[in-house]
Amino acid sequence: MRPTDPQDVAQDPPDSSTAEVCIQAENITLSLNAAPRLWKQRFINVLTNPGGHVDTVGHQKIILDDVSIAFRKGTLTAILGGSGSGKSSLLNVLADRARPKEMSVIGDIIYMGNPNIRSIDIAYLVQHDILPETLTVRETLDYSAQLRRPLDDADAREVVVQSLLQRLHLAACANTRLGGEQRKGCSGGERRRASIGIQLLSDAEILLCDEPTTGLDATTALQVIKILNELAQNGLTVIISIHAPRSDMWQLFDHIALLSRGSVLYSGLREESIPYFHRCGYEMPSFVNPAEYLVDLAATDTRTSQCEHDSTARLEYLKSTWASKQFSHQPEKLPTYTTSALSGASECNPSQPPTLMRELCVLTARNMKMFIRDPKALAGAWGGALAMAVVNGWVFMNMDRSEEGIRSREGSLWNATELYGYLILVNELYRMNVEIKLFDHERQDGITTSAGFLLSRRASKLLLEDLTIPPCFTLIYYFFAGYSHSARQFFIFLVMMWLSHFNAISFAGLSTATSRHFLVAGFLGNLYFTLQMVAAGYFIPSTQMPVYIGWLRWITQTFYTFGALAANEFIGAESPSGVGQFYDCPYSNNPSDPSCKQYTGAYIMESLGLPRDWIWKPVVILCVIAFICYLWAGLILHYNPLKPVTRHVGERIERIDPPEIRFSPAPSPQAIAITLQNYGLKEKSQLSKRSSLLGPISTEFRPGRLTAVMGASGSGKTTLLSALSGRLATSTKARYQSIGSIMYNNTCLPEDKVRLVASFVNQDDVHLMPSLTVRETLQFVARLKLPDSLSKEEKDARAEVMLRKFGLGHCADTLIGNSVTKGISGGEKRRVSIVCEILRMPDIVVLDEPTSGLDSFIALSVIEILHDLAREGRTVILSIHQPTARMLRYFSDILVLGTEGLPVYSGPAQDMLRYFQNLGIECPHTMSPTDFVVDLATPDPGDSSGQQRVGYLVQKMKEHERLMKNVDISQSTSGSDGSVASGSVHLPTTSRNPFRKSFLLVLQRAALNLSRQPILILARTLQLPGMAILLALFFAPLQKDYLAVQSRVGFVQQYACVGFVGMIQSMATYPSERDVFYREASEKLYGAKSFMLQYTLLELPLEVFSCAVFALFTAYVTDLNPTVGQFGVSLLGAFGCLSSGESISIIFSTLISHSGAAISLTCALLGIFTVLGGVISLHVPPVLRALNHISPPKYAIASILNYSMKGLRFTCTDSQKKPDGSCLIGTGEEVLKMYNMTDELRWSLMGLVLCTLAYRLLAYVVLKLRSTWWLTK
């Protein structure tokens, strides 16, 4: 039918609904400035176009284009449209959610007659679930109810929670932990329903839901929409975005808004939508889901240039038609609330946030339960602190009272407060960086505050960590070191450790509030740690600090903790006057003897530049510092909420159509039949209420056929697909034991062999690199996965074809993005993940919810492509929650699982309805067959008849399977062909690319991903230069007098801290890259050698640059020894410590998947190496001294001291001379002898080089063994 004239359509009557307008959006335009920063653009312009102008054209992207929509009170409005049409963006604008600063909004939004959004309560369901992984479903809803319904009593909240559990089909998993990426728990659909339940707890006037049915089975999705419809009938204004609603949802919608690429194609009553498009010249065919029809109408078909041209012309016509209709009715104002009508209601909002005290109580109880259920994090915090206490206490065990013993006591006191504080700081930085995501989410919902978040974290950890770890550390360390047994002195030591603990935690909160990026927060923590070291007064006496920088010590916590501990040890709390403690003077037993002056506590405090009566004043000051840091963190969190960052790459889409590309003939896939013989998973222990997770199931997945696995959420679909593809989670195998067998062409294969012939598309898309574009992602995947017989151009062309087939042409040069960096939409990410797996054309393709988050047009296109793959002879299996009626014709076989993981139907798709008809169950003609069978397999909560129905269907299916098995046996004995592939499975034995080629590809991909993350580059390159500047401000220029001995040695000791920088850099990037490697290594795309080599080479230039700057400051700026040789030794020392620290971090992160525990153990080991360096402790026990052979800081400090001290002479005053008139320390050689660093320089340098190489080699070996173990498991 030809389109009619827009002027004729414009005469349609306006929306006839008489309901009052709740939200009225007028002329809303959301634009994105994707241009690079001006300084960055100018820098690039200088390199590429010297003398040219800065080009900013083409960087403005319109996301919403002049949108005007009215949402009426007490109605359910569905916003329809394809992926990337602007549905989520419109909801974000309506809710005034935090958006990137690169985005700007113009237009007006009126909320019930008031332009102030805070005049009403809005609940918002985000597209991605953000939930506490260690809590059960019931606990999560209960705690949320306490925060969102603070005026209800406990009984009322319990009734509401129980009702939600029943209505959302969550009763069966109410006591199951939610789980997430790192923890096994609820299924994706169950987590989605829990998120919906959290928002339904709110007494809001408006409920906005971004894809509320994503990840839900068809029955539960319908039930959720029914609940939303009931809420709308009760007066709540509900606005949802939805991709592919099933046909029986259509009647539940009151209003429809149809979007396409940010423009409105229709907005009005549901019943008037189809007639409107009929008048536009587009008539809906019979027996078609109206919602699917509208989404298809608004979709841009980018599979070919002709399709794109035709669909673009259609959309332009529909857009102009609706615009002219809006213009013709513009004078008519829709009824809205008036200010006078709101005067009474505005005084009392229907929902109130909880009071601070109630918020603290709820969050503290919730956090405590979450911490207790994270034993690895607790073990990491406790294990790191106790290991440091034992080893470091052992290092300083039974210190004598000689001059060397005095220096060891000074080092032990500094070690007690500084290294312990850094351990707590780094551990808290990581954990807070993880936990703050939930706070940011709840903060936007208006149920938590920055004060409640910060205070509740400390309250929940008081007994678990804050009040218990410092005493345990003190008990071990204090008595190991052999300090005074005075109870008063022990108590003062304990108080200082508590204050060090709380100050470290407070600054960790401040760093995380400043930046959510762990590397940036770690950068701030390391600078703070460096300031703590140099300003404490141990390495450089406070009297020798330059005036222009020495004032910083007064705002540094370790200056007070070290000063108090030193006064406590050398003066004593009982008598701050006099000479203090008197140590073993070899010249006299009289403390008044001038020759014994340096053995008195008073002289020691004076040489350190510390007040001798400093014990209780620092306590007050430290409390104030901790309070200020915490207050500052709270203010930053309150006034500077998290905003995502949006970055795009310039558009450069090349139009490539499949017919225009010529490929080399692809090898035919081998036919692999997968047979399940009573396969299932049963609980190993008898404590679980549910003894079986899956099955037993007996069925067959045949090559050349597309099999759809359906069923309710939690029925075991994901578990079954994971088992079929050889990717069953280790946690699942630890808890459940498999029964029966899975045969591949009548052969049992181990999981690592199955992964060679089977690809698996996960339900999530976390493996995608956020800083690559869609096109770049697919090109790298094609170059890695496609056979080496294809040229690079052919591989890129195949990627381009799949990109076009899956409708990704319009976002081909947009970054993937993540939770921080705004990128493509969730539906577009889903399609990218699918293409990444099917590009290599495997023999078996397994997909878990491939259409989740896709609109009906794109979802059908994906199913068509998968059907074509199956027709080529592949075995294609997918799970699907909400299949449309049009998809049914593409399914060859269907497996329907009941709520207990047992099959309700298994067989050809064309026989499914006939099978149920034979059981006396008819499918209504107005209902989709797929929705019908999923409803059959999903009983309503509390419906005993439904449970009996499912049990009856399971039993009938077992009888049917036995009957079909007997038929197969009779056919095989009569010589009939089984038509099923048989024989062994041909397994590829090598990677598709040789090492050199795969290594270069991985290196190029990682380099491109890193180059798009300037924060990472700056943080990695500026950490050591920042430390160098700070050290130079305190130490430069180094003198050559007696007091400068301690300053010079203290300055060189800072090299031990360079390893902590390497740890922070590794923990910020390595875990995510490791997970990508595991995934790709499982397909034998490349090995640990390629990954570790590219990781090392990529970080090498950044590390060499930062180490070179650090070495320049060491040799020349501080005047340690301004020679080229000193620069070279210093450069090697810095690089060795930095690289070794990163290697040790990689080793622990590979051995321990929990990053928090890995950080604690790495920090503890590096802390031990710091103490064993020979500067802090002069008498290391022989057993521990052996650790120096594997300590990079030991070799670095020894080599730098050796080179800088040789031939150096020190001056001294009369008071610093011995009785014979010579200086206490006169030459650099005497310093080396005192610190036992008399080894030749070449041996120290050789040890440093060997340690650096050995740790990186060990990291490679551990990764290789771990990846091999991971593959076999």
Automatic annotation (TrEMBL):
Q: Which InterPro entries match?
A: AAA+_ATPase, ABC2_TM, ABC_transporter-like_ATP-bd, ABC_transporter-like_CS, ABCG_dom, ABCG_transporters, P-loop_NTPase
Record key words, sorted:
ATP-binding, Membrane, Nucleotide-binding, Transmembrane, Transmembrane helix, Transport
Any one of the GO CC terms: membrane
- Which superkingdom? Eukaryota
> What residue ranges are annotated as transmembrane?
377-397, 462-484, 490-511, 518-540, 615-637, 1015-1038, 1091-1117, 1129-1152, 1159-1180, 1243-1263
Alphabetically, the GO molecular function entries are: ABC-type transporter activity; ATP binding; ATP hydrolysis activity
The record's subcellular locations are: Membrane
ABC transporter domain: residues covered: 41-286, 676-925
Q: Which SUPFAM superfamilies match?
A: P-loop containing nucleoside triphosphate hydrolases (SSF52540)
Topological relation to the membrane, as annotated: Multi-pass membrane protein
Protein known as: ABC transporter domain-containing protein
